[in-house]
Design brief:
Elements: H1 3-13, H2 23-38, E1 43-47, H3 55-66, E2 73-77, H4 102-112, H5 118-128, H6 132-141, H7 144-147, H8 163-172, H9 176-187, H10 208-212, E3 216-218, E4 225-227, H11 230-239, H12 242-254, H13 260-269, H14 275-290, H15 294-307, H16 311-329, H17 333-338, H18 349-367, H19 370-388, H20 401-417, H21 424-432, H22 439-447, H23 451-467, H24 475-485, H25 495-506, H26 511-527, H27 531-548, H28 554-567, H29 571-588, H30 591-607, H31 611-621
Parallel strand pairs: 1-2
Antiparallel strand pairs: 3-4
Helix pairs in contact: 1-2, 2-3, 4-6, 5-6, 6-8, 8-11, 9-11, 9-12, 12-13, 13-14, 14-15, 15-16, 16-18, 18-19, 18-20, 19-20, 22-23, 22-24, 24-25, 24-26, 25-26, 26-27, 26-28, 27-28, 28-29, 28-30, 29-30, 30-31
């Protein structure tokens, strides 16, 4: 192996002080190693839980897998459905493992739970629908009298999300020492926890009840403990109290040498600002970045900023996180340039806030990271307001351009999060601007954030702003007024100005504004029956999104196409578009995009006369009988 390839291995494995190597060099080094090993005999490379690998590792494996054709090396990987990865685009043969058929499901139940009452057996088969984990977990959650039908079954057996309850009931029956040990296993990110590692706090055989309950597997040779399924990890963490979690993280940190895992555990165990922990996190972020995981470095550095007690140092770390995020994305170069000034001293906080706003948008746009972008921007806004406001009056400067732009970005983040609590710092910051706050911000705060409750009072002001649009040449203002109008049926009055913005974008002007304008016009076309134009505009906007890197803005365009297809009864197109929305939005907790999918599916079901399905999808957006808090799309 060449010196360059040895250096690449040293960088990614941490066995040397070599600088970080590019993914291509690392992939070449792995290929050389595999092919050299295969000269002795055929070799099979097996990767389980592919979806848990970090992005640099996925990228390297994808490059390796594509180059194994006609070699003596085979490649087999398993990944959970619905987790997008690099492997979706490398052209490898894929096989989706379907659920068990009826005969196999019956056999599994008979082997694991012989003697089930026939009615109980049938109930489990119906609700599990061939999911082997659900079959086992649901049956295990029942008491012996219930399995024999000496006691009635509950009205609803847990499935999907309710499966956590089944796991919780089994965990709660374990001895306290076993539960403490299981929590350590759940929180251990290294995957190397051994049953005897914490003998000082728990006996090695404390794991036995959990193994007997089927919650963990223990390697008899190494005594290494692994959870039977990731769902168990979630249930264990949810069942633990805050103090119990803190103590578990502290125990894990004490058992580890200096590493990003140790730093993360220290951060989770912290109860307040802690510079020593923040400094260790910052060092861990640098190591993570050297290993090629920029996204992970951003997350670690963000936590370091949260724990930093000195404001100047906190801003420096926030700006650093923003810069790394921009550098990783490689898109929206003008925003990336803003981040080069991140972390300036107190007297230049406007530049730091601009960098934070740009970084937050990049995180949201490229990775759909709603939570990190929200934390980044809220922290920066609060710092900025604390430095620049009239402390006696508690007011912020309504003419502060950095603050106003940051709040518009926060508006977008809060909307896509779809969670009412995310809006609390936004509304507080807008109120602090006082009566002279820009109308584009106050109108959107009423008609776009929570129109069901606040929209009515703002309609007269919105109508006045729309009336002034024909003379307005500012594409940003035109689009922002259009956004304020979308959920209160006022876009029709904005059409002239929006079309001007579209034409400007077509000529190479304000492209981002033009993307928003095409989407707004498409939705107005939908509600007025111009389906053909709606489809054309949405398609044009999606092409602009793809060519200019605006991933986030593509989802309204996808919705517009899905609604046109639903109105026309094109089920295949609707399912393809909504599946893409759901697969992207669910793991990122982007609830607005999930609502988009439910909207299109509800309309499709209505057109097919399937009213129960339509009702269920509508209720997923907003429960029956209410308009959900800060869910504008419910209207």
């Amino acid at each position: 192996m060449s010196a360059e390839h040895r250096q690449a291995f040293a960088a990614v494995t941490g066995t040397g002080q070599a600088p970080s190597s590019g993914h291509l060099i690392v992939a070449q080094a792995v290929l050389r190693l595999l092919r050299a090993t295969a000269e002795v005999g055929p070799l099979l490379l097996v990767v389980d839980d592919l979806h848990w690998l970090n992005r640099p590792s996925q990228g390297v494996l994808a490059l390796v897998a594509r180059r194994l054709a006609e070699s003596r090396v085979g490649f087999l990987a398993a990944s959970r459905s619905g987790h997008p990865s690099f492997f979706d685009r490398v052209g490898l043969t894929q096989h989706e493992v379907a659920g068990l058929d009826l005969a196999s499901s019956q056999e599994l139940l008979d082997v694991r739970f012989p003697g089930l009452a026939p009615s109980v057996r049938q109930r489990l088969l119906e609700e599990a629908q061939g999911n082997p984990l659900a079959l086992i977990e649901l049956a295990a959650a029942l008491s012996e009298p219930q399995r024999m039908m000496r006691q009635p079954l509950p009205s609803m057996l847990p499935l999907s999300g309710r499966l956590h309850e089944a796991i919780a009931s089994r965990v709660q029956r374990l001895p306290p020492a076993t539960r403490r040990l299981l929590l350590l296993v759940a929180l251990d990110w290294t995957g190397n926890l051994r049953a005897d590692l914490f003998a000082a706090r728990a006996r090695p055989d404390d794991v036995d009840p959990a193994e007997e309950a089927g919650l963990v597997k223990v390697d008899n040779r190494t005594r290494q403990i692994t959870l039977a399924h990731p769902l168990i990890r979630s249930a264990l963490v949810e069942l633990a109290g805050d103090e119990e979690l803190r103590l578990a993280h502290a125990s894990l940190a004490a058992a580890l040498d200096e590493s990003e895992h140790r730093a993360r555990h220290l951060a989770a165990a912290a109860v307040g600002p802690d510079e020593a922990t923040a400094l260790e996190l910052e060092r861990a972020a640098r190591r993570t970045l050297r290993q090629g995981d920029g996204v992970g470095a951003v997350e670690i550095l963000m936590r370091a900023a949260e724990l930093t007690p000195v404001p100047a140092e906190r801003r420096r770390r926030l700006a650093g996180a923003a810069f790394i995020g921009a550098d990783v994305t490689g898109q929206l170069a003008h925003m990336s340039m803003l981040l080069t000034d991140g972390g300036r001293p107190d007297h230049d906080s406007a530049q730091s806030l601009a960098a934070a706003a740009a970084g937050a948008y990049l995180l949201l746009n490229e990775d759909g990271d709603v939570d990190t972008s929200h934390r980044l921007l809220v922290s920066a806004i609060e710092e900025h307001r604390g430095l620049g406001r009239d402390r006696a009056a508690g007011q912020s400067d309504p003419d502060d351009p950095a603050l106003i732009e940051a709040l518009h970005t926060l508006l977008l983040i809060c909307f896509f999060s779809g969670r009412a609590e995310a809006w609390l710092p936004f509304h507080a910051a807008v109120r602090a601007l006082g009566p002279k706050a820009p109308d584009t911000l106050t109108l959107a705060a009423a008609t776009f954030a929570d129109p069901a409750r606040d929209g009515q009072a703002a309609l007269k002001r919105l109508d006045a702003a729309i009336a002034d649009l024909p003379a307005d040449l500012d594409p940003t203002r035109i689009v922002r007024i259009g956004i304020a109008a979308i959920y209160v049926d006022r876009v029709a009055g904005c059409r002239h100005g929006l079309w001007r913005v579209v034409q400007d974008g077509r000529s190479g002007g304000a492209v981002a504004s033009a993307i928003n304008a095409t989407m707004l016009l498409a939705f107005d076309d939908l509600v007025t029956g111009r389906w053909g134009e709606a489809q054309e505009l949405a398609s044009e906007g999606l092409r602009l999104c793809e060519s200019h890197g605006y991933l986030l803005l593509s989802w309204p365009g996808q919705l517009a196409l899905a609604l046109v297809a639903a109105a026309r009864g094109d089920r295949v197109t609707v399912m393809a578009l909504t599946d893409e929305m759901t697969q992207w939005a669910e793991p990122r907790r982007v609830q607005s995009v999930q609502a988009y999918a439910h909207h299109a599916l509800a309309l499709l079901a209505l057109g097919r006369g399937d009213y129960e399905t339509a009702y269920q999808h509508a209720c997923a957006v907003s429960p029956a009988g209410v308009l959900a808090d800060h869910v504008a799309h419910a209207l």
